[in-house]
Specification:
The chain is mainly alpha-helical. It has one domain. It has 5 helices and 2 strands. Strands 1-2 form a two-stranded parallel sheet. α5 links the parallel β1 and β2. α1 packs across α2, α1 packs parallel to α3 and α4 packs across α5. The longest helix has 15 residues. It is elongated, with a radius of gyration of 15 Å. 22% of the residues are buried. The model has no long low-confidence stretch (mean pLDDT 90).
């Protein structure tokens, strides 16, 4: 994610909580999000957070949301004992909004 994309993410966040967003804030958030390459998933992570939490959204929430969406794209995942893991409903819905289909895990 580049600085311009980080600004887009922050603009989306600001729509709900009216936080102050200026060049300094954008640069600080960029430190925590620059390695997040999937910007559309980052925007969906904002939606997921807003639907699930009343908490103040932070960079870690975006990172976790992107990870959840990425994990939701892989079906057939199991735990260490071989039990099939339940799907993450909100992350699967975010995946659908992104127009991405889940794929079966490769053995």
């Amino acid at each position: 994610m580049n600085l311009e994309q980080t600004a887009i993410v922050l603009a989306r966040i600001q729509l709900i909580d009216n936080r102050r967003v200026d060049e300094e804030v954008i640069r600080e958030w960029h430190l925590y999000l620059e390695d997040v390459a999937d910007v559309p998933a980052a925007l969906e992570a904002i939606t997921m957070h807003r639907m699930e939490s009343r908490e103040w959204l932070m960079p870690v929430d975006i990172r976790r949301g992107v990870d959840r969406i990425r994990d939701a794209a892989i079906t057939g995942r199991t735990d260490e004992w071989g039990n099939l893991l339940e799907s993450d409903g909100p992350a699967v819905a975010a995946l659908a909004r992104l127009g991405r289909a889940p794929r079966e895990i490769e053995s």
